Amino acid sequence: MSLGERPFSAWAPRNRALSGLLAITVLSIALRLFGLGSRVAHWDEARVGYWILRYQKTGVFEYHAVIHGPFFPQVNSILFQLFGASDFMARLPVALITGLLPLAAWLYRDHLCESEMVALALFLAVNPILLYYSRFMRNDVLLAAFMLFALGFFLRAHATGKARYLYAGTAAMALGFTTKENVLLYLLSWVGAGALLLDHRLFLARNHERGWTGVFIEYAKRAGRGISRFAPHILLCLFEFFAIIVYFYAPRARGVEGPGLWKAVGNPSMFGAVISEATVGSWAELNNQWVKSQGHAYLPYFEHFVSVLEQGALPLLVFAVIGFLAARYVDERPRDLVSFAFYWGAVGILGYPLVTDIKAGWVTAHVVAPLAIPAAVGVALLYRWGREAYEDDDDTGTAAAALVALLVVAQVAFPAVNFVYMHPQDHQVPGMFGGQQDNYLVQFGQPADGIGPTLEKMQAVSKANQQGTDVLYYGYVNEQSSYIFYVPDESDNDYWKPANGWYNRLPLPWYTELADANVDSTMQNETLENRKPPVVISRTEKQPDLDKHLPGYVAYDHELTLYGSETTVYIKKSALRNADMSA
User: No. of H helices and E strands in the chain?
Assistant: First the structure.
């Protein structure tokens, strides 16, 4: 053994929990990076990705609540500039940040024992829901990660009195505010869970000699002393918070009128307008989006939400209930963190189906993340029972604990492999016990499997084409008098807000923009006869009309969503030969 190896070999046994968390974190990152760019972009990924590419070209950015927070436009635009844009690079920030989630368990070491921290890290690393959406350019798991870190840092600040944890927690929370607007629901959940914990104390104080009012005053004084301890740092933390918010939300206005962050660097008198747009203006935009949101029936959304949880987090839910009950009724006194996290997650099961605007599995991440804490307590309890049975030579107890552990591993491993890696784009997937089952983790806007090779061909021929239109959409007017694929003026899609007919094209605009393709659209057959672009795209229902106008083309039929969006991509055979690709 070399001298360089001895320090770690001596350190690891003394720090078993931390070394275990580090090992799980390595696994967590590896699971998220493996094949990260293999799945074709979801409708939502493509929409945001397209606008990031347009932001790079135009230098113009404004916050739009409909595509959520500005984290991706600001972070990914830098990554794209440095390393090039791709599906892999678009998802990399989410994969890396959420891959570090197991380390968040270390921040809760004042409230969890070693086995509970390891169990929490494992849940955060391999839970199928968190894993699937950690490989997705989407804000939800990112927000959950930032807020788990933020809470952990704040708890460490309270436990140690060290201000550095307060600054770290403030930064994590501010970054959470840059991801998605339902960060406000996190704060409301925290306030509600904290109120329930206080109610525990006041209820138990009914027969106390000071009464519940005296106990309430005592806790108020404790809170005041805790705040006063950090008084010199609170103003700096507020400045830190708003500096991060302003940087991310501030408009960029290169080459156009209006306030812009980098303009203000050269013209400091503009900073007031920039800060106003980043704060007051962003809040007004968010409120406006909320006003536009339409209500929906609750039960169908609740049933879908529960179906996703059942498919991707059933063991976690079961152990969360066990951990909560054990920490509340078995331990000498209720454990605040366990109760707090259980209330935080449980209210989300009832609340998120009400506030979400579409049926999407990613919203369950906001419930899974907090419930992982009481679930870790439940798993650690099973581990201790099994260990005690083994040490007592209780073969029956040991076998029972081992059997339950195997069932839990199977219930986590099968959906993780099945949904995340083998069938991330399929509406129907093989069931654990045979047959087929619906894949509730995959959202409707995900293109069906098989479109990837066609997209590669489309991009290759677009890059090889030297003149004229590279990709031509053949559109029409539907029964609701809306354009499908057709946009009267394609330049309308260069800046927000794009034309209505553009949305039907998703996720294709992300891939055409990656190839820097010259895109146009038409509703006239004569255009097909006269221009003969290398790629023509239309709904498959128009194929009988188009085939006679496109001899010498190969037709590829695909779904742009899971189902109901049959689209045909025509690629000219000669263009494929020029791009050195086979049909």
Answer: 26, 11
